[in-house]
Model the fold of this input.
Amino acid sequence: MGQLSLWLLVGCLAILGHVFPVYLGFKGGKGVATSLGVVLGLWPYYTFCGLITFAVWGIALWIWRYVSLASILAAIIFPISLAVFTFLLAEWELGRLWPLFIVAILMPLLVIARHAENIKRLMEGSEHKIGRKSSI
Done:
């Protein structure tokens, strides 16, 4: 196992530890911020894609003001941006980077799955917007 794969494993364990913490009965966060931290730390392959993803998250949050929607869109954009970079940059060989692609697909699936309730509220029109006073 190469050094990049080991760092990838450590990052995945950090994300899983955040989403499913033993000390909280396996009920943790949605993994978005931890995933971003992992993504920005895996230079250069995930870092460039992570910066694009973070920009998409910020733009989506600015336009629609839903953190959950911005997070879901960012999760979708991340593997797409990795695929685009791999296609455009000859030195990024798919045969060598396949572990990154597997995680780049699984990580967003986990983030989206953890947002199931948010997706339901978005569809119902009851999801909380940033900047709007809560009725509670």
Observations:
- The longest helix spans residues 67-88.
- The radius of gyration is 16 Å.
